[in-house]
Amino acid sequence: MTDDLASQIFATWERMAPGWERRRETVWEVTEHIGRQLVDAIAPRPGETILEIAAGPGETGFLACRLVEPGGRVISSDFSPAMVEVARRRGAELGIEGVEFRVLDAQALDLPDSSVDAVICRWGYMLMPDPPTALRETRRVLRPDGRLAFSVWGSPDRNPWAAIVARVLVDADHMDPLPAGRPGIFALADPARIETLAVEAGFAVPGIVEVPMRWPFDSFEDYWAFTLDKAGGLAMVIERLSDDERDSVRASVRRALGSKAEGSFELAGLCLNVSTRAAG
């Protein structure tokens, strides 16, 4: 992946940080069970160091804080400084202690070898320019037999909340279908690829479980605003359109939703939660 692509991804998530902060409580209400499963999978213990990669607002890592007491710590990290500040503010609001907030690039972690006991990452690896490098870096900083749990989104057909907008943008020639290996919400939707990447990075064959969820929306307007606040690369494509193009995409998405768009509705989602350990 090029430096230009990495810069684009960085700019996207700096731009998305305010929207994630606005929506954080709603998102956590809907997806808390996903974060709790990740924390349960690594089973934090007193005195341990837990690293959260691509932490966003930080709630998943915050769940581990009490579990590592006394003597432990959680490193809440993101490569976007704006996202780190969102997590810092959220931690202060919740009165969370024992957290170190850091700007860290998952592909070049500024941490010593074998310095953390477990790593969690919710919806991060799929969006990185080079997931194999990120996973190797994760393995490097883990102690022997250290634990890793991460979540990615499943296939488009199981995630209409995002796939509908993506399909409209592709059909209107506003973006190309994402080629294999390109960062994006569905980049790690194939369990076989996840297994290959994990093992090649030095982990044991992972366990992978499907975790369903449903996004609730008060109206089509709520769904459209959610997309612009949360949908990362898709939101950035929409933002770059002319007013007429944006209005056309909005109308096409509404038509794709059919009768759902006339009132409150839910759209399904599916995550793949992955758990493994450092091998060798």
Number of strands: 7
CATH second-level architecture of one domain: 3-Layer(aba) Sandwich
H-E string: HEHEHEEHEHHEHHHE
Q: What is the helical fraction, as a range of percent?
A: 40-55%
Secondary-structure-based class equals: alpha/beta
Runs in which pLDDT lies below 50 for 5 or more consecutive residues are none
As a percent range, the share of strand residues is 15-25%
Number of helices: 9
How would you describe this structure to a colleague?
- 45% of the residues lie in helices and 21% in strands.
- The chain is an alpha/beta fold and 280 residues long.
- The protein has a domain at 3-155 and 182-214 and 271-277: Vaccinia Virus protein VP39 (Rossmann fold), CATH 3.40.50.150.
- It has a seven-stranded mixed β-sheet with strand order 3-2-1-4-5-7-6, with helices on both faces.
- β4, α4 (131-141) and β5 (142-153) form a beta-alpha-beta unit.
- It is globular and about 55 Å long.
- 41% of the residues are buried.
Write the layout of secondary structure elements.
Elements: H1 3-42, E1 49-53, H2 59-62, E2 73-78, H3 81-94, E3 99-103, E4 116-122, H4 131-141, E5 142-153, H5 160-171, H6 191-200, E6 207-217, H7 220-230, H8 232-239, H9 243-257, E7 265-277
Helix pairs in contact: 1-3, 1-7, 5-9, 7-8
In a few lines, what is going on in this structure?
This protein has 280 residues and is α/β, with parallel strands linked by helices. It contains nine helices and seven strands. It has a domain at 3-155 and 182-214 and 271-277: Rossmann fold, CATH 3.40.50.150.
